[in-house]
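Model: Ready when you are.
Researcher: Fold this.
Model:
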Amino acid sequence: MWPYIPVYQYILRRDLAESTTVKVSKETVRRLAALRRSLHAKSMDETIEILVRRRRKDALDAAFGSDRAKSRKFTEDDRLEDRS
């Protein structure tokens, strides 16, 4: 069983005074703190918000974007029309 400790208060909305405690492992706290520093976030809340936004963007890109790894540059041979 993982040793869980209550860590930071996660603010549900920045304009409200409501918050809740989220239990995470010490390792997760360490990794979030490192991410916070690398992202230049002001708080753990901001770090989590950045991660959530990035995940949402990645999911939308995967669902609606092109597959850039399989795409290649358009060439004249790709034309389906005859211009003669």
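Researcher: Now this one.
Model:
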Amino acid sequence: MLLRKAEKRRWDWAPETITWVTPGDIPAAPLADFNTSSESKISVWYVESDNSNLERIIAGIAAGRQTADKFDYVLFPEEVLSQAGLNAQEVPGQSKDKDANARWHRDLLEISASKLIKLVELVHREGKLDRASERDVIALIKQSVDAGLIEKRGLDETLSKRVFGN
């Protein structure tokens, strides 16, 4: 599976509540969660089949924020990439967990507008939206810092105070 940070409100809608979207189509809002870099790349994370690295990935990404908050994400099958005509490349990520960055980060490459739309349509259809609560995010960051996976001094001061209370 692949993980992309998302905003649940962009994905969590019922077709019967949006009457202007034709059957088989989706609103444009989820496209915002798949914004590309200036090089037409999208950052995603590889999640092991048993989800054994999911919490580390969440902690690493969430630890890069300024505040503790819920963490919304979408998990989708890797096969979606070939269906959308995309390729992934293993490249270091930018989370606060350096080991996770090296092991599980991928960039989706050479994304055109039509490929992006196809990707989001497939992720909408085959992906699973999920959320880690603020309480869970705080616990995951603390666990990762305590385990030496994330450096406490690398956390934003506001986030550090919320996680560690000092």
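Researcher: Key takeaway?
Model: The longest strand covers residues 71-76.
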